[in-house]
Amino acid sequence: MKIRDILTFYDKILIVFVIIVSLVLLLIPFYYFGTSAEDEELILKVQQGDQIVKTVAVANSYQEPIIFKIKGPIGIHTIEVNQGRVRVMEAPAADPLKICEKTGWISREGPIIVCVPNSLSLWLESTNSDIDGMSW
Hints:
Number of domains: 2
Shape: elongated
Strand content: 25-35%
Oligomer: single chain
Strand order of the largest sheet: 2-1-7-6
CATH topology of the largest domain: mini-chromosome maintenance (MCM) complex, domain 2
Radius of gyration: 23 Å
InterPro entries: NusG_2_sf
Pfam families: NusG_II
Order of helices and strands: HHEEEEEHEE
Keywords: Membrane, Transmembrane, Transmembrane helix
Structural class: alpha+beta
Distance between the termini: 54 Å
């Protein structure tokens, strides 16, 4: 017995319909949440301990990279802002695991770069955001 003998014409229509609906439902989140708003401006916030020590407009990094250093208890971090993305370019030698350096680039709200030994946190905030809070 072959599969053609088991499936009717309407079964085949139902299978095609389910596949199409599934693909549409998979693509809807990318359409609504995939791109950021055009009037949205990202701002990098750098926190050392419990104080914000630096804020940088990420939009200024499209022409030329912004590189700056932040001194902490165990050494100096080199931070790079380039093409709308942020990363810790170089962690101090005293940082044993250099997790903040290995985190890589962040380019949207939500992810955060943390260097616990140096009490350093970096994150992006939007000037026009629908998010009013986050929890982990």
